[in-house]
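Bumping with the actual sequence this time:
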Amino acid sequence: MTDCFSTDAAHIRQLCGPEEIRNQCEIISHNRLLPEVLNAFPNFVLVLNRFRQIVFANNPVLKLVDQENLVDILGKTPGDVLNCLHAVNSEFGCGSTEFCSKCGSDKVFNSFQLHGRHDVEECRIIQYGSDRAFDFRVHIAPLPEERHDLFLFFLTDISHEKRRRVLERIFFHDMANIANGMVGLSRIMRKKEMAEDQKRRFHKALHHSAERLAAEIDAQRDLTAAESDELQLRLKSNSSMTMLREVAAFYNHNGLAGGCQVRIAEGSADVSLLTDHRLLNRILGNMVKNALEARPYKGLVRLGCIDLGHEVEFWVHNEGDIPKEVQLQIFKRSFSTKGVGRGLGTYSIKLLGERYLQGHVSFLSNPEDGTTFRFRCPVDFPYPDK
């Protein structure tokens, strides 16, 4: 059976013209009952042709994409209409990039076309421009008139469900780890006779644990507010070198580096920039934390900054490389290599860095050079009020 939904770019170009799209749309409209039934669905339903072009969308879809008239989206693909970051940046649109091969919608199409299976997958989309993240549960079914090569495409928005579940799991996981460490320290201090210098070290470790606990609570609160567009910026003048020193000291002195040394690169620029210290510290901290988790055993993590005139670029490097399959899904909220419900680090870097601090996040990774994450942001914040 021919794969009608291949991500091969040459195949994607074989789209139906406007007249054929209108004919396919009329197949739906002539069946008076079908549009009424699909519009009665509370979830999103599309009717697509064999090239993934939209020939019908129910009312919830039109509301989601802020369109009043179906005509405005006829012939487009779901990724184009939803303004998917990868679809917008591709010459051939939705389904044509290597990122699409990891998308749930691509998987259900191919599974149905090749094997006739009605699989259910998750489709993760980051919206171009807004950086708004969607999580959909998707599946496909043939229209009863199979000879027309039209398909029902169902999308259920599970973004809130996924967000709540992930945030809860991460929050309770991290809180439990830190709290258990504090309990262990306090028990040792209560039962063991200690010299004054040893007692001071234990007090210091306990104090650092309490600081980490407060920081984690603040981080979860800020991330929840950021996703709800309720996060308020606190802008003030900051020194890039001071920021680097704070982050490096936090991981080196609190035992969080796991025996690895976090070093500031020689020649790093000291730039004065107007930004939110709390959010920039969180972004740099997540970059370092991810680098520590990904580095080879006893590897080195380096961080630095470059003066670009009107912008400053912060970077964090580790010697490990990211597998290609993981690279294609980095920055998606619900994707993680750490297990179910884990790993919001790269997603929060992008969310806070681009939506709120008006910067740009990127990375490069290969076996020869290791992995470098970069965050470039303006020296003078362009919008005094968010």
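The tokens above came from a reply further down the thread. Residues 159-191 form the longest helix (33 residues).
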